[in-house]
């Protein structure tokens, strides 16, 4: 009888344990399934996609504090939402060479830390030439500053205070070695300052007044054709207009699209405009068609966009809080 009592008491805990483990398995399976599906749903539902059919790329913020040290050897790869074989020239028939290229495996766009800036100043626009990066800072009271760095983050030169305002965008003209800087800001009439950084004491050598264009000015120099792409709007949240101009500011053509976010950077490369807003790079044709979108979430505020030429060109993305630059590689694949 005592044996039966002991057996009756041990049956209930064993049965409870089995039921408990089965319940945990169900919960674990549900959690894993949800974690796998959720990122795909987030990518597809991401806002800011005004043109259907263009490719989306997204990099999610890494776990932990975004201000912690992010080693230059660490990489975060973009997640491809749609195949990267979208037509790069949508108005023309694909050539045999482009079809064969599309059939080849594409390298994933990826992002790596380039360097951190050892300053807490108000980082804004950026441009690059050769092995140097030029960072713009808003120093207040209508003054700005340009600092030249090596690709490893070593400070080479400081321009000192210049009348370049917010320093919203910088663009290097390979034809004359000057840096074109917009004052920027949603309430400031657009001006472009031409800065000579090669001088012992860098200075503004010319100012192009484009106040009639509006506010929120950004500029991208087309060094090949010696033209300017100028971005303006009534304010940082209004519809935006891109004007293709002579180097003196005469408008040759333009297009307007709806607002995509606070303007942070602009460049032109291989017949396309790369437009940087809040955590997003939008690639547009010169007629205003959106071709591709990169969503970049690395913590802090987006600040400045530049191109580094070479056999394997890459984009330089600026972030504030803390100040740092990343390299976006394989961005054309």
Strand percentage: 35-45%
- What would CATH call the class? Mainly Beta
Q: What's the count of strands?
A: 23
The major sheet is characterized as: 6 strands, mixed
pLDDT averaged over residues: 79
Low-confidence stretches: 1-12, 17-22, 24-52, 60-104
Whole-number radius of gyration?
25 Å
What is the fold-level CATH name, i.e. the topology?
Neuraminidase
Output the helix-strand order.
HEEEHEEEEEEEEEEEEEEEEEEEE
Helical amount: 10-25%
- Sum up the overall morphology in one term: globular
Strand sequence of the main sheet, in spatial order?
Answer: 3-1-20-19-18-17
**Beginning-to-end CA distance, first to last residue:** 78 Å
Number of domains: 1
- Counting helices, strands and paired strands, the structural category is alpha+beta
CATH architecture: 6 Propeller
Helical stretch count? 2
Structure commentary:
The protein has 333 residues and is of the alpha+beta class. It has one domain (56-329): 6 Propeller (Neuraminidase), CATH 2.120.10. The chain is built from 2 helices and 23 strands. It has a 6-stranded mixed beta sheet, with no helix packed on it. Strands 2-4-23-22-21 form a 5-stranded antiparallel beta sheet, with no helix packed on it. Strand 17 and strand 18 (272-277) form a beta hairpin.
